[in-house]
Write a structure and sequence with these properties.
Strand content: under 5%
Structural class: mainly alpha
Number of strands: 0
Number of helices: 3
Helix content: over 70%
Order of helices and strands: HHH
Shape: elongated
Distance between the termini: 57 Å
Length: 74
């Protein structure tokens, strides 16, 4: 893209980012795509960080439950 000499606008950058996100971010992608208004890259970045933090928290809770279940069985 840089070779064309024309910088990408925020909407184009956002499209590339959304296309590259994995299935764990599908709720975020769907909500951004469903918006009637445009979203700034900085606002999207904040949403992305929050979604990533939530995934990490859910993974940690899952690991705690798995450890507790294993300890109970032993």
């Amino acid at each position: 893209m840089a070779s064309t000499g024309k910088p990408l606008n925020d909407e184009e950058v956002l499209s590339y980012i959304l296309a590259g996100l994995g299935p764990e971010f599908e709720p975020l992608v769907a909500s951004v795509m469903a918006r009637d208004d445009s979203i700034s890259l900085s606002s999207f970045y904040a949403l992305l960080l929050n979604a990533e933090l939530r995934h990490k928290q859910q993974d940690a809770v899952g690991e705690i439950h798995s450890s507790a279940s294993a300890a109970t069985r032993n």
